[in-house]
Amino acid sequence: MRIDKAIESTMAMDDATWARHANPLSFWTRVPILLLLTLAIWSRVWIGWWCLVPVAGLIAWTFFNPRAFPPPPHLNDWASKAVLGERFWLARKTTPIPTHHARSALVLSVLSGLSLLPLAYGLWVLDPWAAFLGAMLASMFKLWFCDRMAWLTEDMTRSLGRDAAQQT
Predict the structure, then answer these.
(1) pLDDT tens track for 125-165
(2) CA-to-CA dists, residue 29 to 52, 97, 163, 165, angstroms
(3) In a designed cystine with 51, which of 20, 30, 44, 110 is the match (CB 3.0 to 4.6 A)?
(4) Helix residue ranges per DSSP H, the chain
């Protein structure tokens, strides 16, 4: 199983959940999760095992977030298009996407994943610069990936002859 499909499966994302996740509030309230998780793990220095409370809260929020907001009134927002593009990306085996988008998305996903290495190292040895660098790079590459997904939505809806609201 591909890792992206495994993550989607773990998140239990059905059509209704994806529709709610397309709300820009859902998107933008997920953006700081990695930085907050980094801070929560780092807080073990100050609060010991109590750091597991904010870590558990953030993990719960990560799962609950796509379900927390209503479907948006329209799908013309950049964040909505990024979420819709991610659905195109995940369905690329059944509905092929343009090669340039597939290649870019894969490269950005790998770079985002590799950025977790300095983050993990920084958290392990308590190196604030490594942790900060890793978290910032992972977040930057993830947002760049989302920008590509918004672009993918534009291209796919144009090529399929439908608007973003009919996508999925």
Answers:
(1) 999 999 999 999 999 999 999 999 999 999 998 877 665 54
(2) 21, 28, 25, 22
(3) 44
(4) 3-10, 15-21, 24-30, 33-42, 44-47, 52-68, 78-90, 99-125, 128-160
CA dihedral for 109, 134, 13, 11, sign (positive or negative): positive
**What would the pLDDT profile of 88-117 be if each residue is shown by its tens digit?**
999 899 989 999 999 999 999 999 999 999
Distance CA 16, CA 112 (A): 27
Tell me the backbone φ, ψ of residue 97, rounded to 5 degrees.
Answer: -110, 160
- Chain centroid, CA 27 distance in Å: 8
> Are 20 and 64 spatial neighbours (Cβ–Cβ below 8 Å)?
no
- Cβ(91)–Cβ(156) below 8 Å: no
Q: Which of 19, 28, 18, 27 is nearest to 71 (CA)?
A: 19
Q: Measure the CA–CA gap between 103 and 116, rounded to whole angstroms.
A: 21
CB 157, CB 167: distance < 8 Å: yes
CA 154, CA 168: separation in Å to the nearest integer?
13
